[in-house]
Model the fold of this input.
Amino acid sequence: MGRGAASNHIIDFKNADVLLIIGNNTAENHPVAMKWAMKAKERGARLIVADPRFTRTAAVADIYTPFRSGTDIALIGGLINYILENDLYFKEYIVHYTNAAFLVNPEFKGPGELDGLFSGYDEKTRKYDRATWSFQEDEKGAEKKDPTLQDPQCVFQLLRKHFSRYTIKKVSSITGTPEEKLEEVYMTFAATGKPDRAGTVIYSMGSTQHSVGGGNIMSYAIVQILLGNMGMAGGGLNAMRGEGNAQGSPDNGILYEHLPGYMPTPTASLVDLKAYIKKHTPGTKDPKSINWWVNRDKYIVSYLKSIYGDKATKDNDFGYAWLPRRDEGQDCSDHMAFDEMFKGRIEGCIAWAMNPAVSRANSGKVRKALSKLQWLVSVDLFDNETASFWRGPGMKAEEIKTEVFLLPASSFLEEEGSTTNTGRWVQWNYQVVEPVGGTKPDYEITNELYFRVRRLYEKEGGVSPEPILNLTWNYGEKGPDGKIKKIDIHAVAKEINGYYLEDIYDRTTTPPRLLGKKGELLADFTHLQADGTTSSANWLYSQYYTQKQGRIINMAARRGQADPTGRGLFPEWGWSWPLNRRILYNRASVDLEGNPWDTERAVIKWDAAANKWAGDVPDGSSPPLADEKGRLPFIMMADGVGHIFAPIAGGPFPEHYEPLESPLPENPMSGQRINPASKLHYTKETGFPPENIFRSADPRFPIVATVFRTQEQYQSGSMTRRQPWLLECSPQMFVEMSKELAKEKGIKNGEKVIVSSARAMLWAIAIVTGRFKPFTIEGSTVHQVGLPMHYGWLYPEDGGDSANLLGPWFFDPDVTAPETKAFMVNVSRVPNPDNS
Done:
């Protein structure tokens, strides 16, 4: 539920018995979250840190396990195999609450049988036909199940078969992790597969930014489902976000594939609202499944009423035709947009609160792409490498025709509004000072752009004016020209929450019960209607700015500190989507009768006398599963259960593939060296264009590299590199390497060196430490280095340039995540002894 959303929240870390931090340096990059991990340690929990580098997080770990970047699936695949082989899974949980018992199509085959492929692969399209990934059905159309888990075609047995190949010896040879360390990690985390134990997995972009990023996260999810850790206090799968509102942005539709509330964006074949609803409303034959997305019609119609108001009527499909539509299968991610820019197919770009000339993979290609635009608008606090790309290294300004506009934005301290943290908690932020130097908040800049574009349509007409001219924009007092004088951000928040557009009644009661009066703020999304009588710009946020007994309540502004359960839920502090629920899928934390698996860490409990749940806001108000009216706990899944077998683009089970650039000429697991479904910009006719070049198992680039964050700088550095006290702490681009590699290369700590890849080279200061150690991979020594992502050529003058110049143009098939965390480089001394 929610791309990258944490199932629990950071305070809940304190409830864990074991914490596995992987792909994240929590102590440096999320120090507040680390506080709660340390609280867990104070009560006896064990902290496992898996990272190629010995970080500040690793320094306080009970178990630190190094592993080669890009081998997460091998590492976690070994853990899955260990859990299955030693019968450490939570059997009652997986039988009743997951698809472990479901019977899969007999035609399905996995990588063990097809040399690294799943059945249905099309080499030409690099995609899978998922027909054989289906489940067997009974005469009523429901999934066939084997609750004994013995049928060879049940998900559980197929999982066992798939991961039996991931032996500790094999995993060690791929990851470089010593066998005894693997066994220690596996034994420690697998011990949480008991009702009275809980383990959490904490990750971030060290896990996602790989060509198998989707598979990495799926592997973590499988572990947590097998051990019964989903829905539990101290459990879950917790993505650590890199910015203050990185969760709130995709929640509210910033990603191309989703409208607000994670509703799919329309595609060309869905010609009307009926077709859209039919396509995106999953069905189920299981009477025990709530199948929450059956409410799709209510959510999409209320969204259309929110953005188009009275212009959206039943007669015009509520304005559905005014929404933009993608071509079928079209990838409109920013990476693909830069690829289109590079090919000269896009005229203009607004880079809003981003610095892609530094932060994006293969940033040299991105900079060239910007030079092919007719115009570029950069909206940021300061000038940065994107706005000034035309005067950067290797650029010939006289040949660049891109017209650049820099719109100065204010900082978060100079504006008001809500942000959503990594645990889905929405909190209201107040303006501290007025914007300085003529800068404007983002919403005021948006207001200016909207009315200028609107006036152009009114004056000149143009193609498809309706999406602009029919928008509602009731966010404050209007001037004589119809323009909003100053945005009332509270009005925006109220629109996100939604309104009753007519009196709404519950007609299942006698007499009908009034739910809400016309004009009032919506109580919550359970009141949304599909007939145009309610509005909500984001169904998921409905209730966050609400109205009770005539009193308007900004739920995000609440600061109550009561914690009645003692579990750190703090239900009166801010508001958490959905419905102020603090732990997702919490009905999986109880047995079939509604009693907590772990009474000492209860999240919810069924009160039979009161006929309701006590504790956290439950995932649906239905009784526990054993009740005649009981429902399955994973309500956002059509079948109501947690997915061990999950048909994502890369395959229904995670499988190890090597990164595009690897020290190994072959994949030790199979004949498929790289992810066969990855987004590889290559054709047999033309090969690789020069800007997408890569070199794997090449003696010229023998060292694995990764990109990471530091505590002293932030993101692309355009804010923090201008702060002298932070710059003093971390002044220049550096490359961290092991003492063994430095000795081999004749490099001394503090020397300026050259780091080169198949795409670029840059200078960096050598930081020689014991935090990296050489790996033994398939019998050979392999070194790894790390570079920070924060530097760019603009400021300071001697600060160096972006580490992302070095990375490849290669992407995960599920969310187009770039492979910035594992690629091949070389490191050499600067030949000129004066380091010039």
About this structure: Residues 78 and 166 are 5 Å apart (CA to CA). The longest strand covers residues 761-769. The chain has a mean pLDDT of 95. The radius of gyration is 27 Å.
